[in-house]
Design a protein that fits this description.
329 residues, mainly beta, Tachylectin-2, Chain A, four-stranded antiparallel β-sheet, 10% helix
Amino acid sequence: MANMKNLKKITSNIINPIITGIALTLIFATICHAQETVAGWVKYDKNPVLGGSFGTIFDITVLRDGDGYSMWSSWRPQKSVALSTSKNGLTWTDPVSVLTPNADNKWESDLNRPCVVKKGNLYHMWYTGQAAGKSWIGYATSTDGRAWTRMSKTPVLSAELAWEKTSVMCPSVIWDAKAGIYKMWYSGGEQYEPDAIGYATSTDGINWKKNTENPIFKNDPANKWEQAKVTACQVIKQKDGYLMFYIGFRDVDYAQIGAARSADGIHNWVRHPQNPLIRPGDGWDASAVYKPYAIFDGKQWLLWYNGRKGGKEQIGVVLHKGEDLVFGK
């Protein structure tokens, strides 16, 4: 009996620390995974939803289109804007190039970072054209979202002001029917990751008037996660003002996603108290998370983003039940 008691004691001394270690490891892993998102956002467990063998796909725009979704993405190997479709926003068709570089225009050797607005039966796309280390914004229209016609041989928006440096890119455009104008939020600054966000308006989508107070949204040096830059926003008009999702850069290579609100879309932006909301994980999006684009489908938010691991970017999605994004908590 004494031997049995000693054996049990020895076994207990060996097994208990192992069980405790396993439990602590599982708890730590759960906490780490949870910290990839906060404030009710949850990464889709089958991410990434687009990329893989197609190479880097990044900086997208999405529309509720018919009985499903249409996504226009930046397809790096093709230097083109590509189209994919989905019934549920989670499973996507293979990308197909729909707007390709134009050899006749010296400013659009590489096309990316689109924003598409559907007004009536016409699709409007503002996109980034790049060449010779600079970026500009162009404009095209389409009746079906696939075949596009450029509306100008020259850029509709160019870097002209000191803060814009060499590049303007990442347009986020909405049509304000009440005011009768297009409103654009765009990024300006360095070619490799711009620095801040400006605002412009237009009645025809071609001729734009920049706000004299630009940039209207800048990095907050007091917030370490966005101390370097803020860029690549999406702005959504809501009943009580404007909601912005944006990228914050801790440094030029490490990006996370946050949100802010403003009554008029220009002044007094209030950041979400739990920013950053979307953070790099430990797999396909371990290096950085970029360029958010969100839609509320009536029950939940779907927010698509590009995650990077090393030199490759792919598209993932995060979900948030209910429309309230708990800014006040």
